[in-house]
Amino acid sequence: MTQLALVIDLNVCVGCHACVTSCKQWNTSGWAGPMSDKNPYDADPTGTFFNRVQTFEVGHFPTTETVHFPKSCLHCEEPPCVPVCPTGASYKRPDNGVVLVDYDKCIACKYCSWSCPYGAREVDEQQKVMKKCTLCIDRITDENLPERERRPACVLACPTSARLFGDVHDPDSEVSVAIRDNGGYQLMPEWGTQPANHYLPRRKTRIHIDEDELKRADNPLRREDLTTYTGEEALDDVAW
Amino acid sequence: MHPAFSVIFLTTLIGTGQGLFLALITGQLYALGNLLPSQSESFYAVGSLISLLLLIAGLIASFFHLGRPERAWRAAAKWRTSWLSREVLVLPLMMALVAAYGLAHYFDFTQPLFQVADILPVDATLLIGLLGTIAAFVLFVCTAMIYASVKFLQEWHSPLTVANFTFLGIASGFMLAAAYSAWLGNDLVVFFGTWAVIATLLGLLTRGISLARNRRLKHKSSLRTAIGVRHKAMAQKAQGATGGSFNTREFFHGKRSGTVLMVRNLFLVLVFPLPMVLIAIGYGMESPLLPLAAFLIQYLGLLAERWFFFAEAKHPQNLYYQSIA
Asked: A235 in a domain, yes or no?
């Protein structure tokens, strides 16, 4: 079975919000209806987003570290939001594991959002239905697009390639290799939701420089000076 | 969690409606066993009407919780997995049974259909009442399980939630039955009042245990598991929006902790001691109005109780929304 997912590398993310804006642009322009905003240019602006970048500071000054944390639906393999839906609007696609909301069936009772520990779902104030990340289902399944564009908008937009997209059930996929090799982890594993999305941890890049690498004691290219000096050399003795 | 008044009114109103229906059928059973004087048919008919009106009011309140109330009928679809869907099915069933019970009394369908062991004459009202009793308890379970089944809200994820909804609903329903009897001036006030006090005491016990449990509750999630960074000192610097979002509106009550504690103390007084004292005095004075005051004060307290029930629940998603900037 296929389980499409994102792998987000926190070591690479610079917190530029390009994924946020590209997500909003793509998904607000689609056939599923706009992701509406309220007071966008006024006090207390608010709106629907599938993806948000949050920022956390780790440690005490001066030894602090800034972690930019992109957050969207994790497309859990055991999605707790799906069975609680009274209308069946919330479902997990059997062919690719993407968790979706049928906007024509949703009654916006908000029960699914209570059943998501990650806060991945948001009610659209204008359309009055529950919305969430679709992994750009209309892009990734569109066979009219060239192969390389059949990826979520956020992945295509990320300037640092912090977002990888693929099938986490295929052990040889780019995402599976990244999870395996770079210590990919799931959020809130204590709830048993088995999120399909993984995060790659911050990794310190350290190099060790030895003393004799700075002062080269054993330069193999060093030429031995065979001249015998008498101490009385004049300027004329210098071989130009 | 944000306490939504639609849901507060839904759960308290239908709880009272169910409790009142249970009070009526209990009264009828006692009268059948000649333990209480039997009442006129109109007593049961009007009582059922009050119960039905409460259930309808609760149903109307629930529609205000929905973004798309015109599609509410769809909510009956997933009863195999969703407690909300089960409630949506059982509530109209309960309403139909209450209506049928009232109509059966109103139209005097009280000729025994058959006799059990030559001593118990079974008529239509008794059969409908029995089914209604089952429906009332099933509805209590469905309503409470909507909350108790959400494992992420650890304050709710306990059988105590079901016990609280059931006992407090029964308490307010019997209190209303006592008020109704006192208003009519019949001699069932003590009977209903005593049962109301018993249910109130049971509710005090289970609600007290759940308050104590929630005080000592250890939340499973922390910022450490939420973002997967292992450090003691972590602070949020941005949550991706400056003006708030659905996540900040739906999952935070936005009140000071002092206000929340005040509401808790308020409901502890209004739901438990005050109505019990009032109904006792009302019985002593044979007052037609004090039991009504007891019911109204307890119902007001139940609104505060339900408000606090929401406000005290902390959702793990709140870890991602600790500060704006």
From this structure: no
Number of domains in chain B: 1
Inter-chain CB proximity B153 and A53 less than 8 Å? no
Residues of B in contact with A85 (CB under 8 A): 78, 82
Q: Is residue B315 part of a domain?
A: yes
Query: What is the domain range of residue A166?
Result: 4-38+46-76+134-200
* Whole-number pLDDT of residue A209: 86
**pLDDT tens digits, residue range B43-66?**
999 999 999 999 999 999 999 999
Note whether ipTM > 0.90 here.
yes
Residue A174 inside a domain? The answer is yes
Q: Is B153 on the interface with A (CB under 8 A)?
A: yes
Is residue A90 exposed (0-12), middle (13-18) or buried (19+ Cβ within 10 Å)?
A: buried
Question: In CATH, what number is assigned to the domain containing residue B37?
Answer: 1.20.1630.10
Q: Is residue A96 a part of any domain in this protein?
A: no
Q: Which of B229, B230, B248, B309 to mutate to test the interface with A (most CBs of A within 10 A)?
A: B229
pLDDT in tens, B65-114: 999 999 999 999 999 999 999 999 999 999 999 999 999 999 988 888 88
What value, to the nearest 5°, has the Cα angle with vertex B118 and ends B117 and B122?
85
CB A194 within 8 A of CB A76: yes
Give yes or no for A116 touching B (CB within 8 A): yes
Neighbours of B162 (CB within 10 A): 19
Which chain B residue has the Cα nearest residue A111?
Answer: B84
Q: What's the rounded Cα separation, in Å, for the pair B296 and B308? A: 18
Asked if the C-beta of B85 comes within 8 angstroms of chain A's C-beta atoms, the answer is: yes
Distance from CA of A169 to the nearest CA of B (A): 22
- A33: domain CATH number is 3.30.70.20
